[in-house]
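fold-stage: in
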Amino acid sequence: MGELRPIGLFAFSCLIACLTQALPTWLILFSIVGIGWKFWRGLKMPAVLLYSLMILFWCLLIFDSPKLIHRDTLTGALVLGSLFSVLSPPHKQRTMRFHVGLFSLLISILIVPKETFPLWIYFGICVLICMSLVLHHVPNQSMFSLINLGRTLVKLALPLSLLLVPVYYFFPEIRNPVQQQGMSGISGDLEPGQMASLALSDRLAFRVRFLKEVPAESLLYWRAEVLEKSRGMSWTQGNLSNSEIVPISEPKEPIVYELMLDPQLGMMLPLLEHTTSLSQARDEAGLFIQVDKKVVKSNNRFLLAGATPASRFGALTPPKLDIPDIKLSPRVQNLVEQLKTKTPKEQIQFLMNMYKTFKYTLHPGRLASSDPLDEFLFETKRGFCEHFAASFATLLRLGGTPSRIVIGYQGASQLGSSTYYQVTNANAHAWTEVWIDGNWIRVDPSSVVITPESRPKETEGLTSLITAWISFSIQHMMELMQEWSDDIGTFWISVGICAAGLFLIQVWRLRRRKEEAPEWERKTQRFLTLLEQKAKARERGASETIYNYLKLVGEDYGIEDFLELAKLYNLSKFAEEEAAVPKLLACLSRCRGRLPDLKKQDKSRYDIAT
């Protein structure tokens, strides 16, 4: 009951792989070493060493964490607790505590949204943990009894289900919003004022690798969707324009980047502004562009793109954008009348100066009145990027200047000093585009009130860089395999995979057969290895039996213990005399003590010969 089976250790390894974004590098390495120690060698760590290491790593975890009560700190503590169960000696409650740790880590994957995975990965890990739990706690004879099996599963499931209670109350990401609090991200519409506050989510949206020039921070505007229909502070996409297929071309622009997207984005494809060429590995994953919006849609998760830095989009014809059909308050109407007397550039400058007196905050409260535009402009004067973009674009529309809202992401976190970057939902942003003199010009109204403290960013360290490098490497390998499949055909690839699988199965069978050998036989084999390699005794022939080899070595050196060991081995191996096994083990201990004598005799023979 106290021993851990390989399936449980494999599930723990999968959980560590999924949590690399939330764990420091040293803890990941320690986990790999610990699992390797237990899985491959089955060695037992001394209690003093185990407790010393655990205390050391607990202190290091607290010292390395941004703060004591933090999701990453708690996740690291769960990993250390589970690893302690793996390395500790067997005892009655060991397996139950180990599986509680596994289920806790599975929940941690959901509440530490730095990395997201397809649903089948979560399901597969959950099945692995459940299978391990059943194999540890259900007797073999109960596996075929549905009643006994069901009763045991219910008893195991009830206490584990209590783990979900604190998760539900303390982590709003996986439950319905409370008190009108939302999580940062992008969607297909915009309605600021409906949420009292906004929590920044660090869930990964996409990764980027720049192959040539790295653009400045001010150019990192990732365009995902354009909203054109306004009802005051509420904006939607409006009429969907016709899409055209994007031609595939090799990027040759000054900025060339690889983009790896998260599945949460769906068909949205956040690209740098003025991306003019796209390339992808799979031709069947279509690329479609809405020309008038300069928005690209795709269900591909990996692309190569090229962009040219610029500040405007050319438009051949004036846009046909409707004026918002809303009832204006006297204060808003007076503001609109002032705007109508100005040129588009003067309108922009006027509104930007007005917004300088506003405050950027993620906790602006709800706009509860029947006229949210008036309330924001003249009462609260508090909000985040959606409030500023929606009101700014609406006022320009009312003033006679075509405008629209762009939603996407702004900025990126550099991984170390590399060319790898990652963008999370905390980078979600909304800005406006204004049509002036035949061009759509980007204007970010919230930029005049945003300070570095307004949108804090977590530093990304070595672990994130390693994860990004592995992710891009795997993606490139998948592309290469796709090319191979096109060249040599799926059939031969399947044959190669089956052959490799059969080879691995055979290696596993041989290893298992070796591990199933009795302890006395494994010790005898290790002694023979020492005899040949370290003691430099005569080499054993390919067809020579262990009995003959030990007998000849004993005769060569005149050591009777070797002759006795040969007889005891035959009795234990072929006669299957159980009484001979303890004698064989004792004789092995004596023979190991005689190994230095072999070296001395070899040296003395060499001296005589010279």
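fold-stage: in (second)
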Amino acid sequence: MSGIAGIIQWDGAPVPADNLERMMRLMAHRGPDGVQSEIDGLVGLAHARMALRHDELKWRAQPVWLPNRSKAIVADARLYNRTDLLSRLGAVEWFRDLVSDAEIILALFERYGEATPDLLDGDFAFVIWDAGSRRVFAARDPFGVKPLVYWSRGDRFVFASEPKQILCLPYVPVEPDDLAVGEVLVNRYQDAGRTFFEDVRFVRSGHMLSGGAGDALQETRHWHPDPGRSHTFANQTELFEGVRFHLKEAVVRRLQMDCPAIAELSGGYDSSAVVVMAAAGYREGSIACPKLETLSALYPGLDCDEREYSESISSHVPFARRTYVALEPEQSVGLLEEFRRLDAPYAQLPDGESLAVPESFAASGARVVLTGTGGDQVLFDAHILRDLSAAGSYLALARLLWSIDRIVGRRWTHYPRALARLAAPAILKRSLRRIRPHAPWRAPGWLRPDFAAEMESYVASEQRPRRLYPSVVQQTVFTTLASARVSRILEILEQRRAHMGVELRHPFLDRRFVEFVLAIPFYARIPDSGRPKYLLRQALHRDLPAKVRDRVDKAAFGAVQRRGLEDLGGVAAEPAEWALWETVSSRCETSVPILLM
């Protein structure tokens, strides 16, 4: 959680210092160790620093320029393959004893140009200014962990870590993006580049952006995992050991720092897996982080209270445990401030998080938070049913459906219907689709008719992603990670935690781990029962206590949302308190409740 910002004036006019200063003030929360800037004629660059190791305080301040001032960089980057990259670069005459991640990226760009992002393993967002060619180059990590937004119009190109840093500039109009607001209202997300403001866009995850004066900006994907890569395993044990190894290494890489950290622990598979892998890393002596604690939310009296599971994990690991009661109605007073911070028409419903969580971070001294985010997307295996059907493995399909129905408690009549639907010949399925094509999506009746028609047209224009992988399971993992919904979730999570003073790290969104899982053929992922997360449960069989390993349910937070709405009386904000109120309310026929992801 550092921050970057910059202004480039293609017409050669000098960047006004007060414009850059405005942007810097709005990213000060991202730079507890200082905010630096530099203006060099037509370009102004700024960086907010948060150090996680003592050595980082001695790194060269950003922006970093090459000695001949031909190129400069600002970066919010945490590289996990520093050693490999330094070895690849060899001797670089302008490097000092302590080389920053930003300097490594700049040296790579000087040598490899636009091939640089694909060489990086880590979480990053950076912008490079090439003074010689008067072009800009930017890139974002494969999963969009680090944020990067930009605005380009006429003779100006502006970029930042958060939209508000761009919207503060006098020449940037605050024009709500109807379709982005509509995506939230109807819960359909299509464009991962949209923010809630016209012409202010995210660089999409796994993409790079380049352009110059008079050129249209070009955004292209740089992360291209090999769809033809496929693992072969001598046996299932080798597969499970591989999953465990790569997940543990992903956790270990994210705990190489001098400051304390906190691991979010809900009691579900994913957060529990991260915590037990951290414990394994500490046992092996491979983690530098001096102190790791866990943090769990409690929901007294509600079905989503998972304390029995988080307590079970806590009893198996050597970490101090922090908890907080999540339902505190009087804390809803902070909701409007979150709307303003997030530049978005949704925020966390009123609970204890907005006050209790920052207090826990401050009390522990943590600057990094480990999460289980991404586990659902990377290890989701429900689509294995379609792969079994396509492969003609009808006996295995029948067994798996039977196991699933017994576990989830469906009526027996569901089982033969589901089997018949999946096992039907492809020619029959195509014929049925011609006879009974899918009805087009229709907007809900509470949208105004003109806006409903606009959203229906927008949804109908969605392009299905091109099929790259041989199995449905593999293709689903890839497309889900690149989806607008996942991007939006990560961006909101990052921005909320940045205002709480911590950097989020998601071990499941580790490039090496994801690419390993993507290369597992579907037939190696066929569950042994109807329990979810087959690979994770088997890989961590010895690490997870049985109570967590064998659970089949997942917490549902509908009751929390309902109680939050009751506490607020169903009203999100007043017109004078929230910039997007008029936009949202004018698109709806009825009053607007709290808007959720």
